[in-house]
Amino acid sequence: MKHKLMLGRYIEGHSLLHRLDPRSKLTGMFFFIAAVFLIDSYVTLLVGLGFTFIVILMTKIPLAYYVRAIKPLLLLIAFITLFHIFFHSEGVSLLKVGVFSIYSGGLEKGLVAAGRITLFISFAAVLSFTTQPDRIASALSSLLHPLQRIGLPVERLSLMLSLSLRFIPTIFEEAERIWKAQVSRGFSLADQPLKEKAKRMIALLVPVTTSAFRRAESLADAMEARSYRLGAARSQFRQMVWKRSDTLFLLSFTLPVYLITLLK
Amino acid sequence: MGITFEQVSYRYKEQALVKQLALDHIELSMKTNQFITIVGAPGSGKSTLLQHLNGLLRADHGSIHLLDMVVPSSPAKLPRGLNQRVGLVFQYPEQQLFQQTIWEDLLYGPLNFEASRAEAELAASSAAQFMGLDEIILAKSPHELSSGQIRKAAIAAVLAAKPEIIVLDEPTASLEASSRVELMELLHRQCRDQLRTIIVVTHSLEEVLPYTDQIIVMHEGKIVFSGEPPVLMRCTDTLEAAGLQVPAAYQLYFALQEPLGLVELEHYPSATVLAAAIKAALP
Amino acid sequence: MSFLHNSYDKPPAIQLSNISYHRGNQSVLKQLSIKIPAGQWVAVAGRNGSGKSTLARLINGLLQANDGDIVIHGRALQSEHFHDIRSKIGYIFASPDNQFIGLTVRDDIAFGLENLCLPRELIEQRIEAYAELLNLTSLLDRHPATLSGGQKQRAALAAVLAMQPSILILDEATSMLDSSFRDHLLTCLTKLHAEQQLTIITISHDIKELTAAERLIMLHDGALLADGEPEVLLKQQMLLEACRLEAPYALQLCRELKLQGIDIGESLCEQEVLKRLWALLSSKSLIATRSKR
Q1: Do C150 and C275 reside in the same domain of the chain?
Q2: Which CA distances in Å does B166 have to A40, B158, B200, C27?
Q3: What angle do CA C25, C29, C31 make, to 5 degrees?
Q4: Does C84 contact chain B (CB < 8 Å)?
Q5: From the CA of C278, how many Å to the nearest CA of chain B?
Q6: C168 vs chain B: nearest CA distance in angstroms?
Q7: Cβ separation of B88 and A184 shorter than 8 Å?
Q8: How many domains does chain C have?
Q9: Are residues C198 and C106 in the same domain?
């Protein structure tokens, strides 16, 4: 199950993007999302595509991987595109299909919508392919740290995030085992109405949840036994070092943002 | 009848790029109504093999004959009733219990397999009785039981569905020494008195040797030994390769056999048997 | 060296005086008093529910006693001192997964050292050193989901030893693993005990683990059942039964031989049984002295 999802996987490499500080990549992604929201025409879409393409090339990861990342969402993209195509009636009429008319305005809106989703996924893929999950988590916790002052429990959230990254594969495996065990006892969802299916899922949810809680208790003991205290000072083994290339990387985002704003 | 594997191969699905076969052209035959043990180092394919017995995993090639059923390689359909006739108990089976009381969990299996309420209750209560679970325990919730009790309850839950073949993956894992012996005794009695076929995967030869009729050793997806325990005990290379140690009983028996001229023992040399043999060999 | 005399000049590593602990209205430990000298290897046996794990968790403050005092290395165990005292006590749990905190072996070893506020270079050094000690160097960057139970447990050991504790508690550390792991662990502990005079407490159901220790404490129903040498205590059937332990084959054979009129005393070890048997038989000239296996 877990290996079918391409997005979210880390792919080893030594490209510039791999070596950047995860904080600059994460921040860059936020800038990029802002830029993508501004895209509303073929021209601005082209700028976005061009910039993303350059970044993808810099990761030195084959395009095929990015295509695989987008594949699961192709259906959604197609649906949104067709929706725009059939339900917008600006511009010149291009085609008549039975009752529906396809207008150039609708076509543009549809393709631009498809383009925006593709850009978004591609950049998320760039982030996840070039940055190990725990580094993303550290970056997030570091960037959110100032918010500690306004009461946001950053250390707690960051601990939750890193423990999730640690345990999600393990809990997944256990869920699979429990599912197999119940199937061996005759568990089946086949040919059942939705309500009955939901009722039967308890045979899976209860054991997995109970076990997850037990794990959490044991883990808390193990952490305390190794002198962990929430809120206490700790040294940091993994370090994030901000380099000049990180500043340049962030500055490079001003170009597409500026161009897109200009060409809107 | 019996259980036969004919040229069964299976490749791990998630690592399609890896050449390694989880099961490599397995040829195996087991008789029914016997106590059979499968051993091997971690990664040898034991758990994968077990999951082929009740159809959880499907062979890529080859076929399995179980009792009067044939389990073909995928994607052909599984024989009806396979799931019910072959009961599979995973490691730490107590993890799968989810009902409010043990009694309800015992009923879960038979009801799933379309027994009537009356039939299910009868099956559940006989399974409980066999495993030594009294009414007080049956009314309790899983977390109120000791580790030994809850293990027995989880196994009873599989017994309640009345399978003809029971397959157990490390049934004694993490149990106290006395509980392990108790559980093995109970499984042996299922085999001897209830005429069920028992297949156990374990890494501890010591505890199965008094009961097992056949031992199968797996290594890297292949069967490297299949036969009677006394024969295996002499194959030190096979044992070593599988990461197994010769149990104390056989260590002593072999050390004494030649010098004292002990009789050839066909079955497990329990302390009683060995002491008697030693006495008999002395003038 | 008799455990009864505290022949070391330093204060005992662990001193429990009249410790009581109850969970709800059930009494788990009843006025237990135990003194463990520094550098001693103690095994603790008892059936599930006898209080072994509770005892261990009281020592490092994971649980707090309802009554009585605990003194570690001369300092009273109070909540203000937990952090300090925990840095001296290494605790290994039974589940290899539920004590693996980091995302990789490296991070897991670093975790405890970060909690001690050690500088990065020192953390780096200790990771290298303890990974090497436990044969984990090639596994340092692996995620726990890709490791076997034995590998994860070794990582736990490295992570705990890297904190350089003076007391090591192993709470059924081998119960979820096979006998080869147990053997490796015992070799490792024997070495550590000899080289560093580490105070070791092993809680176990395994006879080999219990006999590896210098002293055996048996608990029953929250109270002290027996306290002495493993070799002596483990030959007593009543004690074995009370702790839900099974007599090892060697011992069973000695007893059966006695019933057959061949008296070689009692022994827990196969090699010892063979030795005694040969000695008895050749002394009675019942067999010519042949080479034995």
Answers
A1: no
A2: 64, 8, 8, 40
A3: 110
A4: no
A5: 10
A6: 22
A7: yes
A8: 2
A9: yes
Bridge partners, A249 (sequence order): none
From chain A, the residues in CB contact with B90 under 8 A are 177, 180-181, 184
Q: What is the pLDDT of residues C181-226, one digit of tens each?
A: 999 999 999 999 999 989 999 999 999 999 999 999 999 999 999 9
Answer whether B96 sits within 8 Å of A181, measured CB to CB. yes
List all residues 6 or more positions away from B95 whose beta carbon is below 8 Å from its beta carbon.
Answer: A174, A177, A178, A181, A207, A211
Using a CB–CB cutoff of 8 Å, tell me whether B161 touches chain A: yes
Give chain B's end-to-end CA distance (angstroms, integer).
48
Q: Which H or E run includes A134?
A: helix A133-144
Residue of A nearest to C93 (CA): A222
A179 burial (CB, 10 Å; 0-12 / 13-18 / 19+) is: middle
Q: What is the full DSSP assignment across A171-210?
A: HHHHHHHHHHHHHHTT---TT--HHHHHHHTHHHHHHHHH
Segments forming the whole domain that contains residue C103: 14-245
The pLDDT of residue A134: 83
Are the C-beta atoms of A169 and A159 separated by less than 8 Å? no
In a domain, C293, yes or no: no
Distance from CA of B263 to the nearest CA of A (A): 45
**Residue at C289 is within a domain:** no
Q: Do C20 and C97 belong together in one domain?
A: yes
Q: State the DSSP string of chain C.
A: --TTS--SSSPPSEEEEEEEEEETTEEEEEEEEEEE-TT-EEEEE--TTSSHHHHHHHHTTSS--SEEEEEETTEE--GGGHHHHHTTEEEE-S-SSTT--SSSHHHHHHHHHHHTT--HHHHHHHHHHHHHHTT-GGGTT--GGGS-HHHHHHHHHHHHHTT--SEEEEESTTTTS-HHHHHHHHHHHHHHHHHH--EEEEE-S-HHHHHHSSEEEEEETTEEEEEE-HHHHTT-HHHHHHTT----HHHHHHHHHHHTT------S-HHHHHHHHHHHHHHTTSS------
Residue in A with minimal Cα distance to C113: A235
Say whether both C184 and C262 belong to one domain.
no
Tell me how far apart the alpha carbons of residues A167 and A155 are, in angstroms, rounded to a whole number. Answer: 18
**Share of residues in chain A with pLDDT > 70 (%):** 97
The pTM for the full model equals 0.88
CB C217 within 8 A of CB C227: yes
Q: Are residues C239 and C258 both part of a single domain?
A: no
Residue ranges of domains in chain B, CATH in brackets: 3-246 (3.40.50.300), 247-283 (no CATH)
Please report which confidence band the pLDDT of residue C44 belongs to, taking 50, 70 and 90 as the band edges. Answer: very high
Q: At residue B54, does pLDDT exceed 80?
A: yes
Residue C216 falls inside a structural domain: yes
What are the domain boundaries of chain A? 2-131+241-263, 153-225
Q: How confident is the model at residue A2 (pLDDT cuts 50, 70, 90)?
A: very low
Please tell me the predicted confidence (pLDDT) of residue C287. Answer: 57
Same domain, C70 and C180: yes
